[in-house]
C-alpha cells in the first residue's frame, strides 16, 4: 500500500481551488492508500496573523476537511503543531538545503516582495514542508500546481540527505490532478484563486450556499467574443470555467466546449455542477457544527497515529546526522 500525505494551511476559508486541486483527491486516496492529511498551522505564523484567530481557523480547516469527505477511520487527520517531530526535523532539513534554494522559491518571492522585514519563517518554510512530507515516508503527495516547486525542493533535500548521511528518507512524488490543479479567480482569470488575495466575488468558497455559487459563476469575467472555446492564453476566463467543469464532471475541457453555444449556457452548467458537487460537503459541515466534539476527537486520535510514524523517522534522521542519542532515544 502506498503512503500518501498532504496538508493545507490553517488560515483562510477553503475555496474551490483547494477542493478541486487537493481535497477531492485526498478523499479518494483514503480508500486506496495509507493516507495522512494535516492542517499546517505552523505555516500560518510565517506572515502577520491574529493569535486569537489561529486556533479557531485550525479547527475550521479540520471541520472543512471532514466535511469534504475525509474519514478519521480511513485516514489520519491531524494538526501540524500537535506533532512536535515536524519542527524538529525541519531544523535538520534547514541544515541540508541552502539559502540560495530557499530564496529562489516563487511563493517566497511573491509573498516577500523584496521586503527585509518579512519573517525568517517565510523563507525557511519549505524546509518545514519537506519535513512534513519526509517524516511519513510518503510515496505520493497530492497537491495543486502551485506546490510543485516546494515538492521538487523536498525531493532534492531527501536525495541530498540520503547521499550525505546514508539511506534515510523515501523520495516522494507530487501528484497533481489533470484538471482543477490551478483554478483561477473568476473575476481575474489570470490570477490563481487564493485564500489570501483573491476578490470575494472571484472566489467560490467550498461552503458557499447554492445561491452564492450561482451568483459568483454568473458574474465570472469572460471576454467580448461569444464563442465557447478552450484556449487558456487568449480566453482565460472561459477556459477557466471549462476546466472547472472538466474537473467537476470528469470530461475534457475541449470536448465540453463543443456542447455550449454561448457563455450563459456554459455558466449555467458550471453553476449547477458545482452546486451538486458541493451540496453533500455543506450538509456534512452543518452536521459537524452541531457536534464539534467529533472534530476535536478526530484531531486527538490523528496526532497519536501521526506521532507513531513520525517518531521513528525523526529518530533515524537524527542518528544518521550524527547527533548523540539521549538515553531512551530522541523521539520521546
Ligand atoms: P495551501 O493551503 O495554499 O493549499 C492547499 C492545497 O490546495 C491547493 N490549491 C489549489 N489548487 C488548485 N487551484 C487553486 N487555485 C489552488 N489554491 C490552492 C494547493 O496546491 C494545495 O495542494 N504549503 C501548502 C501546505 C503544506 C503542504 C505540506 C502540502 C504544508 N506542508 C506538505 C503538501 C505537503 C499550502 O500552503 O497549501
Structure commentary:
There is one protein chain. With 332 residues, this protein is mainly alpha-helical. The chain contains twelve helices and five strands. β1, α1 and β2 form a beta-alpha-beta unit. The longest helix has 28 residues. The model has no long low-confidence stretch (mean pLDDT 96). It binds tryptophanyl-5'AMP. The site of tryptophanyl-5'AMP (TYM) has 25 residues, from β1, α1 and α6.
- State the share of residues found in helices, binned by percent: 40-55%
Number of strands: 5
| Strand order across the largest sheet | 1-2-3
Structural class: mainly alpha
Q: What is the 3D form?
A: globular
Summarize the main sheet.
3 strands, parallel
Annotation field: number of helices: 12
Measured between the Cα atoms of the first and last residue, the distance is: 27 Å
Low-confidence stretches: none
Output the helix-strand order: EHEHEHHHHEHEHHHHH
Main features:
332 residues; mainly alpha; 7% strand; binds tryptophanyl-5'AMP
SSE inventory with pairings:
Elements: E1 3-9, H1 16-32, E2 34-40, H2 51-68, E3 76-79, H3 85-94, H4 99-103, H5 106-112, H6 120-134, E4 140-142, H7 148-165, E5 173-175, H8 210-218, H9 236-249, H10 253-257, H11 263-290, H12 293-320
Helix pairs in contact: 2-11, 3-6, 3-12, 6-7, 8-11, 9-11
This protein binds tryptophanyl-5'AMP.
Amino acid at each position: 500500500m502506498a503512503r500518501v500525505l498532504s496538508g493545507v494551511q490553517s488560515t483562510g476559508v477553503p475555496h474551490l481551488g483547494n477542493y478541486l486541486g487537493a481535497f477531492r483527491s485526498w478523499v479518494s486516496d483514503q480508500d486506496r492508500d495509507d493516507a495522512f492529511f494535516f492542517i499546517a498551522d505552523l505555516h500560518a505564523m510565517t506572515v502577520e496573523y491574529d493569535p486569537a484567530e489561529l486556533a479557531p481557523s485550525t479547527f475550521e480547516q479540520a471541520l472543512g476537511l471532514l466535511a469534504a469527505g475525509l474519514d478519521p477511520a480511513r485516514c489520519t487527520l491531524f494538526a501540524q503543531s500537535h506533532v512536535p517531530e515536524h519542527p524538529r526535523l525541519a531544523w535538520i532539513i534547514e541544515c541540508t538545503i541552502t539559502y540560495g534554494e530557499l530564496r529562489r522559491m516563487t511563493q517566497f518571492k511573491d509573498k516577500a516582495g523584496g521586503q527585509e522585514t518579512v519573517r525568517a519563517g517565510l523563507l525557511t518554510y519549505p524546509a518545514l514542508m519537506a519535513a512534513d512530507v519526509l517524516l511519513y515516508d510518503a510515496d505520493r503527495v497530492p497537491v495543486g500546481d502551485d506546490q510543485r516547486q516546494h515538492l521538487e525542493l523536498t525531493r532534492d533535500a531527501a536525495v541530498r540527505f540520503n547521499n550525505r548521511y546514508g539511506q534515510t528518507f523515501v523520495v516522494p512524488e507530487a501528484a497533481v490532478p489533470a484538471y482543477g490543479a490551478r483554478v483561477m479567480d473568476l473575476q481575474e482569470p489570470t490570477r490563481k484563486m487564493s485564500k489570501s488575495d483573491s476578490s470575494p466575488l472571484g472566489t467560490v468558497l467550498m461552503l458557499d450556499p447554492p445561491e452564492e455559487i450561482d451568483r459568483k459563476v454568473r458574474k465570472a469575467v469572460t471576454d467580448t467574443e461569444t464563442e465557447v472555446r478552450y484556449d487558456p492564453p487568449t480566453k482565460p476566463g472561459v477556459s477557466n470555467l471549462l476546466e472547472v467543469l472538466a474537473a467537476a464532471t470528469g470530461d475534457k475541457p475541449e470536448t465540453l466546449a463543443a456542447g455550449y453555444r454561448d457563455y450563459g449556457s456554459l455558466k449555467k452548467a458550471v453553476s449547477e455542477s458545482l452546486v451538486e458537487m458541493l451540496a453533500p460537503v455543506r450538509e456534512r459541515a452543518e452536521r459537524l457544527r452541531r457536534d464539534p466534539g467529533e472534530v476535536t476527537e478526530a484531531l486527538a486520535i490523528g496526532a497519536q497515529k501521526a506521532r507513531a510514524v513520525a517518531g521513528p523517522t525523526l529518530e533515524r534522521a537524527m542518528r544518521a546526522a550524527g547527533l548523540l542519542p539521549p538515553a531512551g532515544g530522541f523521539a520521546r
